[in-house]
Every structure is written in structure tokens, then in C-alpha cells.
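Incident log, support desk, overnight shift.

02:14 A customer reports that sequence design results differ from what the structure should imply. Their input is reproduced verbatim below. On-call engineer (initials T.W.) acknowledged and began investigating.
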């Protein structure tokens, strides 16, 4: 599952990406990562980019979480409550290797 949000998005005064990561950890997801993009745009067609003089660019973030379809379906209502905008995509993945470091 990929969740596309902005750096400035919040849930209960906390950055949304942090709240999502805490949710995935609490729900026992196999893994999750936050990726910061250098530029992007969404449905509102506002182009967000990182520039030296622009310190509040609200850069795009991608929160990627991996687990079974059943677990993703179970947590989706909670994610819907947390998000005011953004986009979620679902992709099937084949896990080649999974384990602890």
C-alpha cells in the first residue's frame, strides 16, 4: 500500500506520516517506510518542489506499508479517519526475502 501525502499534513497535532507509522507498528504490519520526494503534484495541480529559498514547500511524502491484503483491509477505516486528502494505491507484491537484519 502506498499513501501519498504532504509533509504539512497532520493528525491530532502530529505529522500524519508519524501517526501512520505508529498505527502500522501497533497493528503489527510486516514493514513500513516513509519516502520524501523532491517534487510532485496532486489533484489540486499545485506543484511542490524543494528550492533553496523555499523552506515551506510542503514536499510530497510516500508512506509505503507491506502486509497481507486482509490486514490492509482491516486497518483501512482507521487510515480513512486520519486522512483529509492525499491518495492511497494498492499493489500486489511478491516478497523475495523477509527477515531481520
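02:41 Re-run completed on a clean worker. Output:
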Amino acid at each position: 500500500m502506498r499513501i501519498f501525502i504532504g509533509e504539512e499534513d497532520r493528525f491530532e497535532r502530529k505529522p500524519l506520516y508519524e501517526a501512520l507509522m505508529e498505527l502500522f507498528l501497533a497493528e503489527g504490519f510486516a514493514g513500513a517506510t516513509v519516502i520524501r520526494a523532491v517534487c510532485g503534484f496532486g489533484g489540486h495541480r499545485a506543484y511542490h518542489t524543494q528550492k533553496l529559498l523555499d523552506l515551506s514547500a510542503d514536499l510530497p511524502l510516500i508512506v509505503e506499508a507491506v502486509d497481507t491484503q486482509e490486514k490492509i483491509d482491516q486497518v483501512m477505516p482507521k487510515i480513512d479517519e486520519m486522512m483529509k486528502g492525499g491518495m492511497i494505491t494498492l499493489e500486489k507484491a511478491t516478497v523475495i526475502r523477509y527477515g531481520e537484519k
